[in-house]
Amino acid sequence: MHNPRFSAYNLDMEKHLATQSKRITVMQDNLYEDKLQSVVSQDVYHKKSEQFAERSSKIENRLDELSEYSKKINQIIIYNSKYALKNLYVNSDRIDKRMIIDRLFKITTCNGEINVAHTYTT
Q: H or E stretch including 109?
């Protein structure tokens, strides 16, 4: 259960924010060069530097929010997937249940002992 609309939005937003972040870095570098060449005053440099730092911080916060939201969505998907599998198993007939068990677990016997191993990852 993967939400392609959310993923596409998330990727687009991350690309957009990364582009903005790079642009701010370039502008900061240019501002520094201008300061060194005395094109801008020390006051203008500090004011603009603070503005760039603030914008950069907002971008980083937004990226963190997107990441956190994505984690929450993935947790919901995993949670719902577990219930979907349980419901599938409960509502299946005996043959289908056996097929589900065969797909999820590797069952072996050795010297009279039964060993069960998961065949999937979460």
A: strand 105-110
Beta strand 105-110 pairing with 113-118? antiparallel
Cα–chain center distance at 5: 14
Whole-number Å distance between alpha carbons of 78 and 82: 6
What confidence tens digit (pLDDT) does each residue in 40-72 have? 999 999 999 999 999 999 999 888 888 887 777
Phi-psi category of residue 52: left, alpha or beta, with phi > 0 → left and psi -120 to 50 → alpha: alpha
31 or 119, higher pLDDT: 31
Q: Residue 119 has which token pair?
A: 């065949």
